[in-house]
Every structure is written in C-alpha cells, then in structure tokens.
Amino acid sequence: MARLAQIDPSPEFRGGAGAGAKAKLALVESLLAEQEARPCALFVLRWLVRHAGIERGFCAVVDGDMSRITGLTGIGVPLAALDSFTLPLDDRAHPLVVALAGAEPVAFHSSGQGLLRPFDTPLGADSFHAVPLSRSAEHGDFSPGLLLLTSRGDGPLGEDVRWAAEILGVRLVSLWYRRAQMDERRHKRERSWLFGIINAVTDPILLTDSDGRILIANAGAEMLLTADDQKSEGRRRAVALNNMLFSAALFNAEGSEQSRKELLLVDPTDGQDLLFEVLSTPVKIRFGEAGVVSILRNVTDLRRASEEIEENYRKLRAAEVEARAERDRLDLILNSVVDPILVTDPAGNIMLMNPPAERMFTVRNSAGSSTEAERRVRANDAVFTSFVSTNIFAGASRHWRGELTLVDPETGANVPLEAISGRVSSQRGEETAVVTILHDLTDAVEKAQLYEQVKRHSEELREKVRLATAELAEQNELLRRQAFQLEQASAAKSQFLANVSHELRTPLNAIIGYTHLMLEGVSGALNPAQNEKLGRVDSNARHLLSIINDLLDIARIESGKLPIQVERVVVPDLVDEVMTEVEPLIAGTSLAVARSIAPDVPELRTDRQKVKQIILNLLSNALKFTPQGSVSIVLDYHAPDEEVSVAVADTGIGISDENQSTIFEAFGQADSSYAKRHGGTGLGLSICRRLATILGGRITLVSKLGEGSTFTLYLPRRTRK
Amino acid sequence: MSQEPETAAVLPPLVLIVDDVDHGREICSEYLEFRGFRVATAADGQEALDKAFELLPDVILMDLSLPKIDGWEATRRLKKDERTRAIPVVALTAHALADAHEKALEAGCDSVVTKPCLPKDLEAEVRRQLAGRTR
Known about the structure:
Largest sheet of chain A: 6 strands, antiparallel
CATH topology of chain B: Rossmann fold
Number of strands of chain B: 5
Helix content of chain B: 40-55%
Strand order of the largest sheet of chain B: 2-1-3-4-5
Structural class of chain A: alpha+beta
Number of helices of chain B: 6
Low-confidence stretches of chain B: 1-8
CATH architecture of chain B: 3-Layer(aba) Sandwich
CATH superfamily of the largest domain in chain A: GAF domain
Radius of gyration of chain B: 14 Å
Mean pLDDT of chain A: 81
CATH class of the largest domain in chain A: Alpha Beta
Mean pLDDT of chain B: 85
Order of helices and strands of chain B: HEHEHEHEHEH
Largest sheet of chain B: 5 strands, parallel
Low-confidence stretches of chain A: 1-17
Largest interface: A-B, 25 and 20 residues
Shape of chain B: globular
Oligomer: heterodimer
Distance between the termini of chain B: 23 Å
Shape of chain A: elongated
Number of domains of chain A: 4
C-alpha cells in the first residue's frame, strides 16, 4: 500500500517541457480510471504519439512468472508481430533485457552509427528507443516492462517520454499488486476447495517433488504415510515402511509417461496387507520443476474377488472338460455298440440315440422315397414310445425286457427286436429317463440259420473228406499192394523168362547140335537134298535161339538185373572194332561205308560192352536195310551238354512216319517180311533204346521213307551206376 | 614116367565133357572125337571130379547144373587141387542170366560158353584154351 501511495497522482513532472500540464493530468486521470493493463498502456502510447513526437511504438511487459517479456499492445505495429513477440529474461546479455534492467532509455539504430539491432522487433527495420517503465528500486532489477518507440524524424526522446513511462510503470505495478492480492484470496479459496475435494476422495492422493518428498497428501494418504510422535510405535514403523515402499515405487516409475503399477502397503491401524494400484502422472510444478501426482486405489478386495472368480472359473472349466470327456466316452461307447441304443424321457420321447438307432428312427436324406421312409420312421417312433411308456406305468421293476417289431425305414422289411429297458432316476427318486437297448432278432435268427447251414455244410464236408480220405487210403493200399504185386509179378516174369529160356535152350541145344553134327558129316555124308533140308532146320533153330537171347536181354534189362560195368571207353576205337566185326557183312554188299570222327571227342566212362552192342546193332541194321548207296558213321562231341553222339546214317529204305513211333517197341520192325529176309528178331532197336537209357543216354531217329534213316546215339561223358 | 611127354605129344588132347543131359554129352563127344580129340564124359559132379583126378584131361567142358555136386563146386575143388589146378575149365550154361556167368568165373572157370552153342564154336573155345595153356 505504501508503494501505491508513491504513485498516487500528485505528479512530479521532471522537465515537463513538451506536453502541457493539462495533457499530463488528463493522462493520469485516464490511467487511474482504468483497471486493466492493456488499455493503460494504450492510453500512454496514444498520449506519446500526440504529445511527445512519437511515431510508432509498443509496450512489452514482464510475465506473471517473471520469466519473459511479451508484447502487450502497440500503435502502428502489426498485431501478429506484436502477439508473437517474446523475449526470455534468462537471456541476460540480450540488449533489451539489459535495457529493462537499466534506468535509462537506450537507442538502437538500424544502420550507420550507434547500436545495431541483432534482433527482430515488431517495429521492423527502423531505429527505435527502448524505454524501461518505472525504474523504482522497490521492484528489484526489473522494471515491469519496456516501451519500444520510434520518434518522428528520428529525433531524440523528450522528457515527457520518460515521464509517461514512469507513470505507466507505477500504474501497472499497482494494478498487478491488486490483482495479486485478489489472486491470493482466490487461490486460498480454491486451495481449500481442492483439499476438500481430494480429502473427500477415499483413495490416497499425493503430490511429490522430484526428490520424492511429499508436497501434498490427502487424508487417505496421510493415514498411510504420516504419523506424528503421539502415534503408537507399531503404527510409526508401518508408516515408515509404507514411505519406503512408496518411494521405491515412485523411483521405479520415473519418466514422463503416466504409469500404473501395483504397490503392497501395510494398514498402519491393523497391520494388514493392502494392495494398491498406483496411478502416477508426472506434472510440472513451479518454474519447470517436475513432480508426480499419485493416486492409490485400494484393490485388495478387488484382487481377492477376482482371484476367487478366477478360481471358480478354473473349477468350472475343469468340470466342463471332465463332463465333456465323460460325454465323449459315453458317445464313443454308444457309437461303438452295434445294437440300437435309445435314451427317452418317461413319456417315451427320444432324447438321445446312437447311429444304429438313428437308422431306425430318423430319415436319411439319401433315401429315395423319403415320404415312405418318414411314414415308417413315425410308425417306429409310435411303436417304441408306446412300448416304453406302457412298461413305465405298468412295471414295478427297474429293468424290463420285451419284444417289438419295427420296420426298416429304407427297405420296409419287418425287424423283430428284443428290447431291454432300464429306468434312470434322479437323486430325488423321480424318473428322468429310460435307456433302451434293441437287439435285432432277424440277425440272430439269420445267424442261427446260417450257423446251422454252415455247420451242416461243414459236417457234410467233413464226411466227404473222411470218405475221400478213406477211399484214398484204400486206393493207396491197393496201389501199394498192386505195386508190390507188380514187383513180384515182374520178378516172377523175369524168373519165368529165365526158366523158360533155360528149358527152351536145352532142347534147342540138342536140335542145333545134332543138326550141326549131321551137316558136318559126323554121321556120314548126306545127299544134297538132305543137306539142304537140314540147312533149313539149322537156320530156323538159330533164329529161334537169337529170339530167345534177345527176349532174355529185354527181361534182364527190365528186371534191372543187367549190371553196368563202367570203364574208360575210347569211342573211335570202339567204332573201329565194330566195323571190323561187320567186315564180312560189308563185303557182301556194294555199299560205300564211311567213318568221320570229330577231333574233340573225349574219352567216355561208360559200359563198353553195351555201347558196342548198340553201335553194332545200329550198323548191322543200316547195312541190312540199305540195298544200295552208302552208310556213314559220324562221331561228334556236344560240349555244352557234354554228350558224345554216334550217328549211323544210311541211304536205305527209310521208315514211314507212322512206323517211326513204334520202331523202338519190341517186335516193332517196320516190315516183318524184312525180318524174315534178314534174320532179325525185331527186338534189336528195342534193346538198343533200353540200353542207351540205362547208360544215361538216348537214341533219336530221323528218317524218310525211301530215302534213308539216321539213328543217333547220344551218350553222356559219365554214366552213373 | 619119363616117356609121358613124348606120349602126350603123340596123343591128341583129352577133353573131359561133363553134362547131366545125355544128348549134350553125345553131341559134344561125337563132334570132338570126329574132330580128332580124345574124349571122356561124366554125368555128375562127383564123377567129373573122379575122372578129372584119374585122367588129368587137357580141357574140361563143365556144365554148371549138375546133380550131386554142381559145376561151380566141382570147379572150385579142381582149382584147389595141385594136380588139377592148371587144367582149363570151360563152363557151359543154359542160364542166360548174368549172375550165372559171374558165379562161374568166381568159382574158377577159365571161360564161359552159353548154351545152346554150335559144336564147332565149342571146338574153337577148346582150341583157344589149349593154345593159352601151351603158351
């Protein structure tokens, strides 16, 4: 108030040479009448234009928080430039800040002499004067503001300018002071409201500075975080602990972002744990200093409740899973049963059924005559429902059994079924459901029939097998016996033949012997007729003898009583031997007999005598049955088969195709007249083939009637005994 | 006794014909005598042994099927005895089965001739045996 008294309008004009006293008075009066800073400044600027030779100008004032200067109002200045003008007071070296601190106006020149302006002002490029307002020492280093003015014609400032600046400074300070008082009262009021509000909030609320010191705390926060000396020891400790915990939480939450975290504190009154959710919001307090507003929400109960809910939910889920598994198992069981199973309510309405039951009680889409199928299904349903409900009301027992006939919805065939039903009762004893299993009796009947059939067939089969086996055994026995008999018969035959031949030989010996004696003239000379006739006796007797000998050979071969003497045999030598023996025969013909031997014919291990017999027989035959032409013997070796071949080829009478197949049989000589003519027995080839076989070889024949024959004997290198 | 070789050189060879069949003996002996041999005959095995030891023939024609002692046994005994061991024995058999043949060789016969046979074939065999002995 004292300062206000100083700027009371009893103006002391310092050198008021320019404006008249009347004008100055008028300015003072208008300033006093105005309660706002901006109109006051405008009055002064207008006054200076009118009375103090000022052309343009503006007023910049220090901000409420003393941090900078901003444009307040001006004349002849662009409004935008004015609004945007600002100068931080921190920049103490700035010429305008220096001017503000000084007592005297400072002149800035646009060019040439004086100070250059290293900054922009709303005044543009012109030279100007910076005039500090009321340089009263009571306001410290700073005046409340500056007037920046350009004078007309760039002339010096008059004394009135300084006066007006002082007047304006005093007035602005007085206005601000009053404003500050009013603000203070309002702030107090608002502060108490604010405290009322934050205390009314049960959640603890705190404002802390950057060091974590509590600046403001509501009642809830105080309860947790403050305790005076009167309070109990335990409570003080709890509070100390809470402070520590809270500071730690805040420290961790540092940053510019709003953060939310959980904080466990102790209730100082009963020592119980309290869980809070802390919502921390960074705020600016005083001159950019950082602080944090923290709101603590007690979530102890909430947490407990949510945990309980969670636990319940978990249990529910577990129960649900279990129930579902149970249900799945049940479904699996139901679905795996081949018989229809149905669950009905006590009225007989179907609640649940497995697929076999669905076949009977639902219509499949694929069914052709769906209406027919539907009718059958309805009929089935009716039959079944009545079956269940009748039994439910009539029955006293828990289970019952019955038979009913349904219709196959697809085929319309009657299906006789056995039904077994069981009641399902609730814990209170009331009927809740009936479970029925249907068993298809057609199947059973059919199966029984089928089984009977199968059994019958199987028995028939078994009987047949038994009979067949018996028959087989009988036949086997028969065969065995026959084989034995055959063996015996064969042996008997051989023995018989041997005996017969012996018995035949003895008289034949006499015939031949005596004939010979007589032909040799032992009993005296014979006349020519006797000689000729005796000669016939002799030749017939000899033919008979050779037949007997050949027959005996065959008998011996067949009875297996012909021993094989395996030795080294040089086949070419053997052939030469044979040829020597038949020399007399060859001499009696005009045939060309040739022999050809391959160089690689190896030595054989075989029965020399038998090979010789075969070759001799073949060669004799060739000579016998070839009236003219040639006979050749060709020896060859077939390495891959390890076989030696002896081919006897002639240009003789040949053998017809049909006779070729029988020529090797006993008495199979093609033309019996030939046998007679040549004295053959008709057994030679038969014996040859048999001999070749027991030596492990074979004889082949290639022949054409009238052109000749080639008999080939094949022998293995080694004959096995 | 010192004259024996000289006598033997003059006398034709003696053939002992053993056969139980009369006509067999007859044909053989008649033919061989006709052909210049000396001939003795026996109708069974025992007689054959007796005559062989008594006459010591040059060749024996031995039928194998004989009464009393058969031809095989008789041959075995002859071949065991010092005196008769060297005399060739030609077996005569009407048994055409091979085992008869083999058994004859086993018993010690020097060759086997199957009956029936021509008397001239027999003569050839006898001559072969005699030639073998002299050699």
